[in-house]
Amino acid sequence: MVNFHDPAVVAEDNLALLKFWHVVDGIFLWEFFTNLDFEWSFIQGRRSYRWTIWIYSLSRVATLAAVVGNLVLLNLNSSVGCTFSVIFASVASYLALAAADLLLVIRVMAIWNRNKVVVVIATTIWTINGAFFIQGISRSHSTNLSFGGSCKALNVQATKLTMIASFLADVSLLVIMLVGLFRIDSHRNGASATGRILWNQGVIWLLLTTVAGVVPIVFAFLDLNEPLSTIFRVPWIIAMSMAATRMYRALDDALSSNTYENLVFILASTLTA
């Protein structure tokens, strides 16, 4: 039986965490810079302006800041600046998640054609989730040096409630979105091309949210040791941001095409300025 709290095992797991996070951070950096042309196309006027591009960009930039902050934490060999780095990375991470969730909220409202009940429910879910994010940030102050010399937050287990709240919020919003799409398709006696895109995106998004959200929560509750309790937290944040922004780009491509049907006009009325 492996003693996960043995110092040698913890040091080995911490090394695995450092390598894994470097790889995940590298994947996001590749994703960020290879898709800068999307933002540039709005600046050049090659795409129709949509006010939601600001939320999309906020999610990407905040995730970039979180990744940079995380890389600093992983390679910081002194306690000097450790506390600030942890707070900075936490704020950027939760801001990225909040922006990604807001893209989902807007999509839900659009699919339900701004139904007042759905707007209130979606907004309430997002607001409550944001409150948990603020709570998570407020608990990110205690820091110390971890095995391998990297900077870390001491109160890892305090973020479990925040992760659970975020997971439940995402799943709830995705279910509401899929119900709305099913409702539209049933009224139309068949899905439009854009409707199929939205449905497929919703299913993929739900599956990704379930996998990416459940795994870090399970490991946090298992509390095998500190590295294993946090190893999937950064990948979860990056996965949620990448999913939201990738699907935003795909939807914008669909809205910019000439193949959309009535469903698109519902979406366009909300997603465009």
TrEMBL record:
Keywords: Membrane, Transmembrane, Transmembrane helix. The chain crosses the membrane at residues 53-74, 86-105, 117-138, 158-182, 203-222. This is Uncharacterized protein.
